[in-house]
Give the backbone structure.
Amino acid sequence: MNKMILVFAAALAISCGDNKKEEKNELKIGAPVEEAAPAQTTDDKVAEVTITGNDQMKYDKSEIRVKAGQKVKLTLKHVGTMDKTVMGHNWALLTQDADMAAVGQAAASAADNDYIPADMADKIIVHTKMLGGGESDTIEFDAPAPGTYTFMCTFPGHYALMHGKFIVE
Ligand code: ZN
């Protein structure tokens, strides 16, 4: 009689153990599927742009393209060696209704404000610092509404050569 009970009890214990194992395995198989959903990459959200200006009064880009809704991280590098008082460069993004020549002419008399004319502030969406040779500046801003904009250097006389299109797609 005693042996019969022991065998029965052992059989119950094994059977219970097996059921628990199966339940655990089912949970493990089911869980990772939802966790695998891909996260959006930052590449779609941030447009990193680098543009240079040199001692020959030129940018290395005449066109910059970004996408609507992106954050723009723009770096201007002055790759020349001349001082900012004689070959200063900045990067200024103008509103679509701005007249580049008018901004350029007003900027020429704004030496005390890094050549950013206060009376044209509403025509300038964003701008970097004025840089001399070897310097760089990075700015971050939200891409404006889709369209074509003008960018320029506001140092006196530079906009004739130093300008380009900033296109938001
Ligand atoms: Zn310049």
Summary: Residues 4-41 have pLDDT under 50 and may be disordered. The CA atoms of residues 39 and 129 lie 35 Å apart. The pocket of zinc ion is lined by residues 53, 88-89, 153, 155, 158, 162 (CB under 6 Å).
